[in-house]
Amino acid sequence: MTSSSSSSSRLARIGEWLFRRDALRVVRDRLPRSSETAERAVDQARLLVEVARRVAEPVESLPKGSQPAVLSLLYREAVYWALVGERASEGATAPSDLAQAWASTPSDRLARGLPDPEAFVVARSVLVERSPEELLSTTSDEAGPARAFAEALLWDLDAPIRELEKVQVQRWTRVALLVGVLLLAALGLRVALRGPNLVATKVFKTSSALPECTAPNKCADLFFHTQSQDNPWVDFDLGGVKSVERVEVTNRSDCCADRAVPLIVEVSLDDQQWTQVARRDAEFTVWTADFPKRKARYVRFRAPRNTVLHFDDVVVR
Fold this sequence. Notes:
By secondary structure, the chain is of the alpha+beta class. The protein has helices at 3-19, 21-30, 36-56, 67-89, 98-104, 107-113, 117-129, 132-135, 140-157, 159-194, and strands at residues 204-206, 229-230, 233-251, 263-268, 275-280, 286-302, 306-307, 311-316.
């Protein structure tokens, strides 16, 4: 096998694992060629089983009478319509009654609905053999197997649809997983390209501080908070000379966003001589500023007026 054919085969396997095209085709081919008669019959069986459930688990008290007998009649009808629906899907003629449907259904098919031999005998007696008068003496314990048999028939009829839904869920789950992985990879690439936050440890000093917000890093709700003064500032030490080209400032969010403008960003190698690299004159919530790459040991944010300076967060890249 050549390397190109091997690569094509590998891509085909990956595509099948992801999109499940072949699996979906196989499952769809297994679906019975349902007719309108079959669909209506199965819908009727579902309705009868649901009505029986509501009789067995009533929200309000029911009139006097034999509840197990009523349930048995409902299950008889449900089983009849389930067998009619199954036969109609196979192109067979609908039986005239449940006794005929039962007699013409392979015994192994019926036994699959209730594998327990003793329970199967009870279900057959309740569903097929007892007269209406005899049903009046049916107990709840006897109606139970009839219910289990009716629900098992519907469960089997829905098996191909469940298999189709399972493969479809696999498909969309795997596609969503791939999209998530690609998004995470793109985010990681973006972060890698933008570089790390050089002030992640937030080692800084401020021109002043409120008593309850003393630097470094003692402010309860904010990153920092100066007092009202001329030219308030916050100065970050990068710990060494770094290449700097971007800042991201998150302003105080609960109030007073206007206090932070105008805002000047300055860089320095010695914490003495400063060079302005960015300025913001309009009020902001989050401000991102890119500028030509500069070597710096210190980055300072300064408001050139009498005001108070306070941010929620600062990122330097």
